[in-house]
What does this fold into?
Amino acid sequence: MKKLKAKDLISLNLLTIDEINLIIEESDKMKNGPRNTNFLQGKTLAMIFEKSSTRTRVSFETGIYQLGGMGMFFSSKDLQIGRGETIHDTAKVLSRYVDGIMARTFAYQTVLDLAKYSSVPVINGLTDYDHPCQILADLFTIYEKRGVLKGLTLAYIGDGNNVLHSLIQGCVKVGMNITYASPSGYTPLESVVTESLEVAKQTGSKIFATQDPVEAVKNADVIYTDVWISMGQEDDKAKRLADLKAYQLNSELLSHASKEVLVMHCLPAHRGEEITDEVIDGPNSIVFDEAENRLHTQKAIMKLLMS
It folds into this structure.
């Protein structure tokens, strides 16, 4: 059985092109194969959540159940981390009990430290820096719809957040071009772009930045957006809504794109802010296929790391 060379799934920039392709291939097998299997029979996944979740929790918990194992949910209040126990000690202890750890945290360093001190696989369920599992499911969804990834162009509209970081990292690994349209002050981290440009030299991908959303969508095969106010940014809501107002994915913006363009959003959506009802529920939207595919890709990741 094929496995990832990496012990953990921390960030897309730490995966090889072959590993990303293997996850996409396994996602397809999970979706189109038997719903319930015994690949992880008797195995347990510890799921640590510092942030609330719908898709991440349900897809991992349902996924490991369908693989024959069991998921255990922990909020930060359920673990001694919330009372001062170190990540080092938590990782060491959990490794004696479970077969894998998934963490959805604020700090990227938390996931790095869990992986450093854990002897079992660690999966990054989301951090403020990136969202690798989401983008692996997104790449699978695009491949499922188009039958190819290399040479396609994805346009991202809005806040240059953790989702955009992983989109840039993932797109360049599979040979996709990516254009992002973000206002000043909302662009992705320069370190992410610089590192990804080096990968793009090998794969032939192009990364293009603009402040004009119309320019971004004109030649796009896929248009992607995300919320403008992420968890922890609520105090800046009024300013962020004003600054990003011109970056709404609505029918007017969509009219500048190809009629066959795919519309994606990682959810949850704030309808009427970054995206409108007629777009997210429209004929170009594959948002809910994308959401479903989180389940199949999480199953693929767990099987490849934990079996």
